[in-house]
Write a structure and sequence with these properties.
- Strand 4 and strand 5 form a beta hairpin.
- Helices cover 42% and strands 19% of the residues.
- The mean pLDDT is 87.
- It contains 17 helices and 16 strands.
- The longest helix has 30 residues.
- Helix 3 runs antiparallel to helix 17 and helix 7 packs across helix 9.
- Strands 8, 9, 10, 12 and 14 form a 5-stranded antiparallel β-sheet that branches. A 4-stranded antiparallel β-sheet has the order 13-11-15-16, with no helix packed on it. Strands 3-4-5 form a 3-stranded antiparallel β-sheet.
- The protein binds iron/sulfur cluster (2 copies).
- The site of one iron/sulfur cluster has 14 residues, from helix 15.
C-alpha cells in the first residue's frame, strides 16, 4: 500500500474521491505540472470575450474619468485617501468604509451562495487578464496547446528563440501597461503622468512602484498563472463554505453521463452520454476533470461547457452534459431556486445597504471638532464676562478652499478668533485655529453650558458643531 492509499484508507476516502488527495497542477513528486489548456471555442467563450472587451474598456478608461475635478475612483492607500464615485473618504470616515466592506462581504456571500463562482469565471480581473489577454497572445505566438507542448520539447533553434522572445516581450509590455493603469488607480493619472514625464530622480518611489508592479504582473501571467486562483486567492479558498447544494455551479450531469464509454457506432445499451473524450479536461485552465464533481480549483470559466457541447453535437446527442446547474439539480432534478439561506442574506444585505445609504447621504462635506484648550478653565473678562479658549480642527472634503467664520448659535455671547480672521480651510485639506467664546456672567447658570457653534462661509451656514463652556456660576444676590 503506497502512502496515498494509506491516507485514503485512514480517512475512509473512496477511490473515486482520490482526486481530492492532490492538486491537478502538482505531480506525485511535488513538481509543478504545467497546464497547456486547449483554446476553448463556443457560445460561452464568445460571450466571455465580449464581456472582457467591456471590462478592458472600463479598466483602461476609468482613471481618466473625473467629476468636479476629482477622479471617479482613487484608492490612495499610502495617504489613506479614497475617492469612490467622486466622493472623498478620509480616515475620519472609517466607519463608513468599514460598513461598506461588511456590506460588500455580505453581497459576496449572497452572490456566491446563489451563483457560485460566476464572478471568478466572468469578471475577475485575474481570469480576464489571464484567459482573455495573455493566453490569447500566447495562442497567437506559440499556437494552441499541442504546438506549445511541441515548442517546449523542441531544441533551442531559431524558431523557438523567436517565439519565446516574442511571447516574453509581449507579456512584459502588457504587464508594464497594466502596472501603469493599476498605479493610476492609487495615485491618479496626473501624478502618474508626472512620474512618466519628469526625471526619475524626482519620482524615484513612483518609478520603483511601476517597476515592481510590472515585475509582479509579468511573474503572475508568465509563471504563476492558475496558481493565483487555486492557491493564493482567499475567495477561492472560501468556496467550500460559501457554496451549498443549491448554488449554481458548472457541473457535470453524472446521471446522464455515466457510465462513460468511448464513442463507438454501436454503444452498449447501458452506456451514458459521456464519450470519455477528455475534451472538457483539455480545455480546463486549472487542469481539473469536472466529471469528478465540484472542486475548489474550478473557476467557473465555462470552457468545459463549450468543449462538451461541441462533442455532444458531433456525436448527435443533446448538449448540456456539462452545464450551469446546482448539485441538487443534477441529483434530484430540482430547478435553481431561492433558498432560505439566500433570503436571510438578502434581508441582511438590504438592511446594511439602507444603513450605508443613510450614512452616505447624511455625510457632511465639511466637518470638524471643537474642544476646549487643555489646561485652562476659564478667564474672567472685566466684571461681567467670562471666556473659554477653544481649539478647532476642520476637514474640507470639497474641491474648493473655504474661509470659515464662526457664530454662536444658542447664546448671546461673542466669538473672538485668536488670529482675528476667518479660518482658511484648503480644498481636500484640513484647517485649524483657536478662538475665545465670551459669555456675559449672568448667562452662566451652570458649571457646564452646552454651546452650538455655526460654521459659515460668508452668509451660508455649512454645519454646526457642539462643545461645552465652563465658568463660575452667576449668583444675582452676590452682585
Ligand atoms: S472545470 Fe470547467 S469551468 Fe471549471 S475551471 Fe475547468 S474548464 Fe473552467
Ligand atoms: S467533454 Fe463531455 S463527453 Fe467528453 S469527456 Fe468531458 S463530459 Fe465526457
Amino acid at each position: 500500500m503506497d502512502m496515498a492509499e494509506e491516507i485514503r484508507s485512514t480517512l475512509k476516502i473512496s477511490k473515486e474521491d482520490s482526486f481530492r488527495d492532490h492538486l491537478a497542477t502538482v505531480d506525485a513528486k511535488g513538481k509543478r505540472k504545467w497546464i497547456y489548456a486547449q483554446k476553448p471555442k463556443g457560445k460561452f467563450y464568445n460571450i466571455r470575450t465580449y464581456v472582457s472587451w467591456g471590462f478592458f474598456i472600463i479598466f483602461f478608461s476609468l482613471p481618466f474619468v473625473y467629476i468636479h475635478g476629482r477622479p471617479l475612483f482613487l484608492f490612495n492607500i499610502p495617504e489613506a485617501r479614497f475617492i469612490i464615485f467622486g466622493k472623498v473618504f478620509w480616515p475620519q470616515d472609517f466607519f463608513i468604509f468599514g460598513l461598506t466592506m461588511i456590506t460588500f462581504i455580505v453581497f459576496i456571500v449572497l452572490f456566491t451562495a446563489a451563483f457560485g463562482r460566476l464572478f471568478c469565471g466572468w469578471v475577475c480581473p485575474q481570469t480576464i487578464f489571464m484567459e482573455m489577454l495573455f493566453r490569447k497572445v500566447e495562442y497567437l505566438v506559440e499556437g494552441d496547446a499541442a504546438s506549445q507542448k511541441l515548442l517546449k520539447a523542441s531544441p533551442w533553434n531559431r524558431n523557438k528563440i523567436f517565439r519565446k522572445t516574442a511571447k516574453h516581450l509581449s507579456f512584459f509590455v502588457l504587464s508594464f501597461i497594466i502596472a501603469n493603469f493599476f498605479l493610476s488607480y492609487i495615485i491618479g493619472v496626473e501624478q502618474l503622468g508626472k512620474i512618466i514625464s519628469e526625471p526619475v530622480s524626482e519620482h524615484f518611489g513612483g518609478f520603483m512602484a511601476i517597476v515592481i508592479f510590472s515585475g509582479v504582473f509579468y511573474g503572475v501571467y508568465v509563471f504563476f498563472r492558475e496558481q493565483a486562483c487555486t492557491v493564493i486567492c482567499p475567495y477561492g479558498r472560501l468556496q467550500s463554505v460559501l457554496l451549498d447544494r443549491n448554488s449554481m455551479i458548472v457541473a457535470y450531469d453524472y446521471k446522464r453521463g455515466e457510465p462513460r464509454e468511448k464513442f463507438k457506432k454501436t454503444a452498449s445499451i447501458d452506456a451514458g452520454d459521456c464519450i470519455d473524450c477528455f475534451q472538457c479536461v483539455k480545455v480546463c485552465p486549472t487542469g481539473i476533470d469536472i466529471r469528478n464533481g465540484t472542486q475548489m480549483e474550478c473557476v467557473g470559466c465555462t470552457a468545459c461547457i463549450d468543449a462538451c457541447d461541441k462533442m455532444m453535437k458531433a456525436v448527435g446527442k443533446p448538449t448540456g452534459l456539462v452545464r450551469y446547474a446546482s448539485e441538487n439539480g443534477i441529483a434530484n432534478g430540482e430547478r435553481l431556486h431561492y433558498t432560505n439561506r439566500m433570503k436571510f442574506y438578502t434581508v441582511l444585505l438590504v438592511v446594511l445597504t439602507g444603513l450605508l445609504s443613510t450614512l452616505l447621504l447624511t455625510r457632511k462635506d465639511v466637518d470638524g471638532t471643537v474642544i476646549r484648550a487643555a489646561g485652562m478653565l476659564y478667564q474672567e473678562r472685566g466684571k461681567d464676562s467670562v471666556s473659554n479658549l477653544y481649539n478647532i480642527r476642520i476637514i474640507n472634503k470639497t474641491v474648493k478652499d473655504i474661509p470659515l467664520t464662526l457664530k454662536l448659535e444658542n447664546a448671546p455671547g461673542r466669538i473672538i478668533e485668536a488670529e482675528g480672521r476667518a479660518i482658511a480651510v484648503p480644498k481636500e485639506g484640513q484647517g485649524k485655529g483657536s478662538f475665545f467664546v465670551v459669555l456675559p456672567g449672568k448667562m452662566i447658570t451652570d458649571r457646564k453650558i452646552k454651546l452650538k457653534i455655526g460654521l459659515y462661509e460668508g452668509a451660508k451656514k455649512i454645519t454646526t458643531l457642539s462643545t461645552n463652556f465652563m465658568g463660575p456660576i452667576y449668583h444675582p444676590d452676590l452682585k
